[in-house]
Fold this protein.
Amino acid sequence: MLILGIESSCDETGIALFDTNRGLLAHEIYSQIDVHADYGGVVPELASRDHVRKTIPLIKQVMVDANVSKDEINGIAYTSGPGLVGALMVGACIGRSLAFAWGIPAVPVHHMEGHLLAPMLEDDTPEFPFIALLVSGGHTQLVEVKAIGDYQILGESIDDAAGEAFDKTAKLLGLDYPGGPMLAKLAESGTPGVYKFPRPMTDRPGLDFSFSGLKTAAANVIRSEGIVLAGSKSTQNENAPENVDQIKADIAYAFQEAVVDTIAIKCRRAVEQTGIKTLVIAGGVSANTELRGKLAKLMKKHKGQVYYPRHEFCTDNGAMIAYAGAQRLKKYGNNELLIKARPRWSIEELPAI
Ligand code: ATP
Ligand code: MG
Ligand code: FE
């Protein structure tokens, strides 16, 4: 079964062709980072317009890349939520309409199920049951996964998501949007032990997270060190200390260490609580090298294993949507003539496969 996947929930247009026998045939990702850079965050209306501009050309492109004609495609999977409603509507309308025109089914896909299943696109895939750590721009969740579609949220962030905390702190340090990867890069030249930030909510039982306090802690240090808080791109204050770049790197190091430590503590608890020794990490922050390293060590200690998607499939992409859609179509089929876009949607509401 050959499925076309369309992802348009935020600021990436991701298109892919996935075949249930042959695997991933082609994929394209267009990132709108440049469109939103001047605003320091995603502007929803601009995102929608750019998806309108890019979706159809990229669909044509993957068909050329994979040397596939429309007659060979058996279904279309599109992200129907959660995400920005205007952006979602673009993928949903194009996906549903194209499926109608081609006389094939269209299936609405949950974006976080897409992230959660992205490691299934790799050669070495996890067995059920597993614990999934979803760490992205909008979500931080620990999910017990018994099967595809059988999801129980064990814990989640009560305020900022991990990626959001990375991005906000990066902004305070004067880095461009999205700052997560840039903050991680800056942390590489940071000195351990100069600053120490809290590990929020680790002093009490439970698997929920909180990251907004960490951002405030970083903001306080940035202020007290005489580095101007970023609102604009120039953070270089006339009176800033000479070694401002090193101070920033040291702050980035301490911040990343605190986030990674906090996440690892909660993962350890989830493993101990459930007895499940397979950990899957997915979503943009799962690209973080320190996080991967720390969790690999943790799972080794528990005689378990950690799985994650290849780098480009950690953040938003069409391949994960095509894969998740293929699983749902195989099981249920779906030819409702509805265009579905749900800005808010819990992964627990999905039916099991
Ligand atoms: P959601 O999936 O919750 O709707 P999203 O789609 O915006 O949110 P993703 O595309 O999965 O999120 O991930 C983007 C996030 O990942 C951004 O916050 C980005 O800063 C963060 N990120 C990407 N790479 C890294 C990295 N190496 N270290 C830390 N954070 C990273
Ligand atoms: Mg993005
Ligand atoms: Fe995402």
